[in-house]
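Take one protein record:
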Amino acid sequence: MRATERLAADVGTAMTYLSHTVRSLRRDPIPGETVRLVLTLAEGADDAELEVAERVESLGGEVARELRFDRLLVEVGQTDIEAVCEFDAVTEVETDAVLGPT
């Protein structure tokens, strides 16, 4: 169990896991630069994929592709990372580095 999951269990609320790189980019985004993120969708969330896709597009981003294991690869502006991390249907936010060479 990740530390964030233990903390969420302790306080009784769900928390979104953010990779170290995502946390760093969220704190200090570069205006005008984009980032590719892997978003893990909440299990059992009806229409989570559609909801997240619509919200990403509303930020001016795009869904690059659907991935296995209820994940989406998206591209958004670095200044929009904060908003992405607040999506209710997302449980993990990581950079596309987790995918290896593409």
Observations:
- The first helix runs from residue 3 to 11.
